[in-house]
Amino acid sequence: EDQVTQSPEALRLQEGESSSLNCSYTVSGLRGLFWYRQDPGKGPEFLFTLYSAGEEKEKERLKATLTKKESFLHITAPKPEDSATYLCAVQPFSSNAGGTSYGKLTFGQGTILTVHP
Amino acid sequence: EAQVTQNPRYLITVTGKKLTVTCSQNMNHEYMSWYRQDPGLGLRQIYYSMNVEVTDKGDVPEGYKVSRKEKRNFPLILESPSPNQTSLYFCASTSRGPNSPLHFGNGTRLTVT
């Protein structure tokens, strides 16, 4: 069974104080690891997809990295507008010819990030 | 604008009164799915659909029904809602392309009393 564990559950930072969020996963075969941002009262918003160990992706103050067992979301010099819940999810390779897993994601419980001015 | 639209955003109902939550996407995506989000449990998949007239159970399908008569629409049906179905529901869609992420709607907050 695919599992995703995110830590910490909550993180409070001062503006400009860099840090990292962790996503540990177990999956039979990783097709992709996704990071999403979720603001209160809204649906998850796509940030990154990582496909293989060693891959890195960046977007503004965010940088996602991937190893064979975990992914990190590094936040450099965060601003208050970066406050949100960050979700990690894994997508397995399909185990059948129908390819039914290509849309199925297993999510972690998220990290609630609060950045104080 | 590419989007997934859910309605209603908020719904309060009583036990046993049938309800439908609608979902529509304008991206011509083959795959659509419903998730529920609960504190401490994260997002869990209820049902999904690979294409028109093709649906299957996700991880927590009990008490729910879906249909996919048109490519753009994927309604979630609760025939006899119960209080344990009080939750935040999200519809999502994606295409089969290798770099296509799951796109989410803005959610429907359902309360069953």
Quick recap:
Chain A has 117 residues and is an all-beta fold.
What does this structure look like?
Chain A is built from no helices and eleven strands. With about 120 residues, chain A is mainly beta. In chain A, a hairpin with a 6-residue loop joins strand 4 (about 30-40) and strand 5 (about 45-50). Chain A starts with a strand and ends with a strand. The relative contact order of chain A is 0.32. The mean pLDDT of chain A is about 90. With about 110 residues, chain B is mainly β. Chain B contains no helices and eleven strands. In chain B, the strands form two sheets. In chain B, strands 2, 4, 5, 6, 9, 10 and 11 form a seven-stranded mixed β-sheet that branches. In chain B, strands 1-3-8-7 form a four-stranded antiparallel β-sheet, with no helix packed on it. In chain B, strand 4 (about 30-40) and strand 5 form a beta hairpin. Classes of the chains: A mainly beta (about 120), B mainly beta (about 110). At the A-B interface, strand 5 of A face strand 5, strand 9 and strand 10 of B.
